[in-house]
Design a protein that fits this description.
heterodimer; A: alpha+beta; two-stranded antiparallel ribbon; B: alpha+beta; 5-stranded mixed sheet; 7 strands; about 40% helix; about 20% strand
């Protein structure tokens, strides 16, 4: 896996790095212009702490279980 | 494959968001499901890809905005795996009325204000409005 940086130009991502064959699958992350605004509120911190405590007590489901639940709920709807 | 742990609290939030998407986004009922499949795959390869959040109590809490639903996905990478801590749908600004019609909170407030004006007799009926329009005497007091 390779990490590269680029920017959108006319709706397409242009990179300065090496190129890859057409069809190569990529993940990309949009970098926010202002990262300083991402500060947790006290309420959000409380919510996250409760989740951490639940997981700490061994109360959780796995990714496979969640995906199965999502699929089942959609199919029932 | 990375181990992911989803708390019961987050599980409930996810269920609520999915129910909203199924009810309101007929064209993409699987959007949240696809978002989660993609984000699990992404985090399996690059667990530190999310934006690091500023927190007074905890370090290393990260945020990713899911691409299809726009939901905010909060997580932290811990030694045994990745903990999924919360899911928020920030762009949802719709309010349901009794008969299922959805309007934004702003529109609902405007509608309610209009109804209250009408109940106070401050409006004009349609025929009166058309008559004034035809005669060129209608004036929009709000402009």
């Amino acid at each position: 896996m390779t990490v590269m940086r680029g920017r959108f130009v006319n709706g397409r991502i242009e990179t300065d790095g090496e190129s890859y064959p057409d069809g190569t699958e990529v993940n990309f992350v949009v970098v926010p212009a202002d990262e300083e605004s991402y500060e947790l509120t006290p309420e959000m911190e409380d919510d996250l702490e409760q989740s951490m405590a639940e997981i700490g007590r061994g109360e959780f489901i796995t990714a496979d279980q969640l995906l199965a639940e999502l699929r089942a709920r959609r199919e029932r709807s | 494959m990375t181990f992911f742990a989803i708390s019961p609290r987050t599980r409930r939030e996810i269920a609520e968001v999915q129910e909203w998407w199924i009810a309101h986004q007929d064209a993409a009922p699987a959007a949240l499901e696809e978002d989660f499949a993609a984000v699990f795959e992404l985090l399996d390869q690059t667990p530190h890809v999310g934006i690091l959040l500023t927190s007074r109590r905890h370090k290393f809490i990260r945020l990713i905005q899911l691409s299809r639903t726009g939901c905010h996905f909060y997580y932290r990478d811990t030694a045994p795996g990745i903990e999924i801590l919360a899911l928020r749908q920030p762009s949802r600004q719709l309010t349901e009325t009794k008969d299922g019609v959805e309007v934004s909170a702003e529109d609902l407030a405007a509608i309610n204000a209009g109804i209250e004006e009408a109940e106070r007799g401050e409006g004009s009926d349609a025929f009166e409005f058309l008559r004034q329009l035809r005669e060129g005497t209608w004036r929009d007091d709000l402009s």
